Amino acid sequence: MAAIRVGILGAGGGVGSSRGSSFARVCKALREDVRVTAVCDIVPEYANRAAAEVDAEPFYDYNRMLASGIDAVVIATPLPLHADQAIQALEAGVHVLSEVTACHDLASAERLARAARSSRAVYMMAENYRYFDQVELVRRMAADGRFGELYYGEGEYLHDCRDLFYNADGTLTWRGKGWDGTYCTHSLGPLLYIFDDRVVRVTGMDTGAPSRTNPQIPFPDSTTFLAKTAKGALLKIRVDYQSPRPHKMDYYAVQGTAGAYEAWRGLGDQDKLWLSDSHEASHCSAGCDWHPLADYAQQYIPDRLAVGKEARLGGHGTSEYWLLKDWFAAIRGEQPSPIDAFRALDYTVPGICAVISARQGGTPVEVPDYRNLI
Length: 374
Hints:
Elements: E1 4-9, H1 19-30, E2 34-40, H2 44-54, E3 57-59, H3 62-66, E4 72-75, H4 82-91, E5 95-98, H5 106-118, E6 123-125, H6 133-143, E7 150-158, H7 174-177, H8 185-195, E8 199-206, E9 223-229, E10 234-240, E11 248-256, E12 259-262, E13 272-275, E14 291-292, H9 297-300, H10 302-305, H11 319-331, H12 341-359, E15 365-366
Parallel strand pairs: 1-2, 1-4, 2-3, 4-5, 5-6, 7-10
Antiparallel strand pairs: 7-11, 8-9, 8-15, 9-10, 11-12, 12-13, 13-14
Helix pairs in contact: 1-11, 4-5, 5-12, 6-8, 8-12
């Protein structure tokens, strides 16, 4: 197969980091037959600068870049644009890697599902937290039966992002204006990967709008929802990207019939687990102890431990490295897309439904399965 020609949509330059540039750096680190040949942004200055950094052609119009001969596009634009821009690429036969979330409301979710079903191009959502080493380690241990039957999990994304809510002139950025959902893919997606499951029903509650910490912001400070899965598990998801507090952007907990796992919390804590087949018994009067998750890394993820430092160029450990390897393998037909449009909607839509539930006072809301579209 010829080199995969990649275009980057969204060069960055405003408030926040340039995710497109991060992916471009990792493409070089992969040392595979992949070339970034185009960069597009509606601000010519940003497109020109980013294109020069990777020796690519700058574009200021998305349709022109799609027609320029690229094979694939990385969508790294504001969240409300993701679904429609992914649909444009899929309809043009261009493979898609879309930043999170996959869509911003239920209508765009259905449009994306239909476009992905009718296109021959590969769609993948760039949920990088699902690719963290500790998530992969727990997933492989769960698949090996070490936790027994999984029936409860927790996921939290706590990140004070208020700096990203305002432009230099004090007006709100797209993040500050909000959208019709909660940014739950980082907290929910890894759990669904570990559990090999999807959410069927949610009940959401929030702290009320407008924000207490930022009265100009029209959405709540914190949202929490309970999710029931197709296999009968219960998940608790908390999303908070504006409360002033230390960051904890990747907390997960898993409970099974034969073991438990909890991520680190801070102050010298570490990821930890307890397994009934390896550790002391759990009793009321003589409780069991936690043990380091890292003790199992060499056994279950030796491939992850063997990669070099160049795999960390994306800014989130090695997650973007493994994510891009999977996307390019799917484009080459070597495997299915691990986070295809339907799995991406499994990760995204529960957050949209949780906001609907919260606005209705916590009424349970059924989560659509877009695989069942007629």
